[in-house]
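This follows on from our talk about sequence and fold. Go ahead and set the record down below:
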Amino acid sequence: MTNIILCGGSGTRLWPISRTLMPKQFVKLFSCEEKKQSLFQLTVERNSKNCNSQYIVSNAEQYFLALDQLEELEKVNNKYLLEPVGRNTAPAIALACLDLPYDEIVLVTPSDHLIKDETEYAKVLEKAKELASEDNLVTFGITPQFAETGFGYIEAEGLAVKAFHEKPNKQTAEEYVKAGNYYWNSGMFCFKAGVFLDELKTYSPEIYETSKLAFNNANKEGIVRITHDDMSNIPEDSIDYAVMEKSKKVKVIPSDIAWSDVGSFDALYEELPKDENNNTLNPNHISIDSKNNLVYGNERKIATVDIEDTIIVDTGDALLISKKGSSQKVKQVVAQVRETTELHNIHLTGHRPWGTYTVLTEQEGYKVKRIEVKPGKRLSLQKHYHRNEHWIVVSGTATVTVGDTKKYVRPNESTYIKMGELHRLENEGKIPVILIEAQVGEYTGEDDIVRIDDDFSRK
């Protein structure tokens, strides 16, 4: 059985922790054996116990995050398919299935769900695998713990699906839970790759045909890379609308597996460890007569006095304060943030395939960064139209190319790159290169980069 892991989505309901270039599935929120792990890593570890291989569907930016986190887990032999633009779950699953044998049973899972009862989960997967081997399309219905209005529901008659229902209001959700045959729609599926494609071809032929064309045209040298034009031509639709709500082969397995989609700060609060006052554990939190709070922040001390039932999230460049129970409204905050800043897109620390950069300060006319380059990695050969750059090496030895000149820059040494000059930074050593970069110019945005050559096929 192959686990198809869907890594798309920006997790806007967990802003400012989650950003477009560091979505919630890659944020290390959970402590496991004295180390922090992300939902993506937990998904990989959980499903690797039940599947022979894993196939990761991601966009190009998130691919490098996935690669780094898989290296931490020492899981490196995975297949990857990169989407240049998201078209929802039906095309993503179709493209992966086109790369697999017809009879291969696949387990399709989001990368950002938490499942705590792995023993029951393994039993549920065995049932799903059995039904999938009989050419059924299997979905997993989560036994509802309360009347949730943020999920779609599956109405069942035994293992048969009677109907899919959209997110209900509170009264309807209470009726669903009381009825006993309604389940939360988990967004997880199990079926033969070829059976799914047959059903997609029957019920959503345009998605099938355009996905097939995109896959056939893709670059398949190691990683399957879909072209932007081909991906854009695929109609955007979810697997529910495209197939599951139309097919006559759908079965649902009731699943009581301690599941959460961690889709809001209220949901996250329930999953994090707490102190004696029911505040989430945080060494930076000073609590005076405060209780029942989610307090997140790794950079500054956060002191609360007589605060209750509140969500406080500090990420250095943004501060969110919300009443518990209202955190679904964070999406409205993100909509306003998009209009004026890039805070929806990236953190102060940005992750790149070669390492990381952290913005230390930024004002009109200049920006200062801390840059860390991994051993054996190098930045693209590039130039800028609107800024000059000064590099001061703090540790390691940097190999710097400026124009036709290549030289080594050691700790406490510096170099200067004029606006418009071709340049490249490389780490040929065995320890990380850390340097301070001072940018000076009329514009210091991240999009002022013209890449001439890049090891990671970025444009």
